[in-house]
Design brief:
Subcellular location: Cell membrane
Protein name: FtsX-like permease family protein
Distance between the termini: 32 Å
Number of domains: 2
Shape: elongated
Radius of gyration: 34 Å
Strand content: 15-25%
Structural class: alpha+beta
Helix content: 40-55%
GO molecular function: transmembrane transporter activity
Pfam family, one: MacB_PCD
InterPro entries: ABC3_permease_C, MacB_PCD, Macrolide_Exporter_MacB
Order of helices and strands: HHEHEEEEHEHEHEEEHEHEHHHHH
């Protein structure tokens, strides 16, 4: 009961000196706000950049067959030529990866195609690509109108297409291409969607000059040579990319029947250098942000200790009365410690709220990102508040506990 009574007494003391309590709590809240705010901003910015890097392929890798020989080795022995990845191998790989990653399979059909509709035609430089249900997301292509391919269209190889902006402008000026028909490579396709304008990519036109058809439809198209399939695997968690790459290598070796001890018959091309640099940079930023927050908190703890010392001086007579009525030094010490901790926790809660808001606001100003609630930093901030309260309040509490009751009663 003595501890409970000390807690009640600490709250009564805080209430009786409300202005001083508010000012002291504000000092602590500023320190916590700077710490939590900086760390939250770093995490939010990193999340936003990770999403951007993922859209640029930083969190993905491609698997391609080694389409070259090792040339002439020593002794005049010709290097081994590896066959291309077949459609069956790509499907088996995708099935075995499962939920570990997002696999997109595509095939390049034609790069010099003329698209026609209603007596109009495009330049003969349109590309035709066949892709599966994950192609648009992995390539970061967005639809401005219409829809993506349905599962039935993908399975049955229906003659449907998604076209780029340049094709729409040529064949369907000032109107929607959705549900219209286009002709290419000797077939008629119904347009079900239109890609957002992407702009030229090194003069190639990018998605603006592309016609996307279902992968199964591409397999049914007449051709003079076998299709070459591109297999791209992506993950939304950059830290899992190394593990996923190793897993993918093992799966593809099994699918391709690479013998034990034989080199890989394929290449894995990763593009995660940006993500690696981001992790290193964010670690340095956290250290710098933590140092700034620590310095601010150090100043807040010194200010809190000073205010607690003033409080002990002001309440010297009160301490003498409490000791005269039977209060022990331990109870006096507990009262002042609890008071310091409560002030720090109140200031810390306000600082955490302001820090989370400030951190997410900074990330939104820099770029688009999700609103993050950093539970780890919030918990750490609250723990630091209690530690600051103990550190700042211990000396004033010990000084109060060590006062002589007779001398305290004489204090004016």
């Amino acid at each position: 009961m003595h501890l409970l009574e000390n807690i009640k007494e600490a709250f009564r003391s805080i209430h009786s000196n409300l202005l001083r309590t508010i000012l002291t709590a504000l000092i602590v809240s500023i320190g916590i706000m700077s710490l939590v705010g900086i760390l939250t901003a770093i995490d939010a910015i990193k999340y936003s950049l990770n999403q951007t890097f993922a859209s640029l392929g930083a969190n993905s890798f491609e698997i391609k067959a080694k389409g070259y020989t090792n040339r002439v080795r020593r002794g005049g022995v010709q290097g081994k030529t590896y066959p291309a990845i077949t459609y069956l191998q790509a499907k088996q790989y995708k099935a075995q990866i499962g939920e570990e990653g997002q696999v997109g399979i595509s095939a390049f059909i034609s790069g010099a195609t003329e698209v026609k509709s209603n007596g109009l035609k495009t330049n003969p430089n349109m590309s035709v690509v066949a892709g599966d249900e994950n192609y648009l997301q992995i390539q970061n292509y967005n639809l401005s109108r219409g829809r993506a391919f349905s599962s039935i269209e993908l399975e049955n190889g229906t003659n449907v297409a998604i076209v780029g902006k340049e094709i729409t402008d040529k064949l369907f000026p000032n109107q929607s291409p959705v549900d219209k028909y286009i002709y290419l490579l000797g077939r008629r396709f119904q347009v079900v969607g239109e890609l957002e304008k992407s702009g030229s990519t090194m003069g190639g036109g990018g998605a603006d000059r592309m016609v996307l058809i279902p992968l199964e439809t591409g397999n049914q198209m007449p051709r003079q040579r076998a299709l070459t399939y591109d297999v791209k695997t992506a993950t939304l968690q950059p830290e899992n990319l190394t593990y996923l790459t190793g897993m993918a290598t093992g799966v593809m070796r099994a699918v391709r029947h690479d013998q034990l001890g034989q080199e890989d018959s394929f290449d894995v091309e990763r593009s995660d250098s940006l993500a690696g640099k981001l992790d290193s940079l964010s670690g340095n930023l956290r250290m710098g942000g933590g140092l700034v927050g620590f310095i601010t908190l150090l100043g807040a703890s010194i200010a809190l200790m000073n205010i607690m010392m003033v409080s002990v001086t002001e309440r010297t007579r009160e301490i003498g009365i409490r000791k005269a009525l039977g209060a022990t030094s331990r109870q006096i010490r507990q009262q002042f410690l609890i008071e310091a901790i409560v002030i720090c926790v109140l200031g810390g809660l306000l600082g955490i709220l302001l820090g989370v808001t400030m951190g997410n606001s900074i990330s939104l100003l820099i770029g688009e990102g999700a609103f993050l609630v950093p539970w780890f930093w919030m918990t750490m901030g609250l723990t630091i508040c209690i530690a600051v309260g103990l550190a700042s309040g211990y000396y004033p509490a010990s000084k109060a506990a060590g006062l002589d009751p007779i001398e305290s009663l004489r204090y004016e």
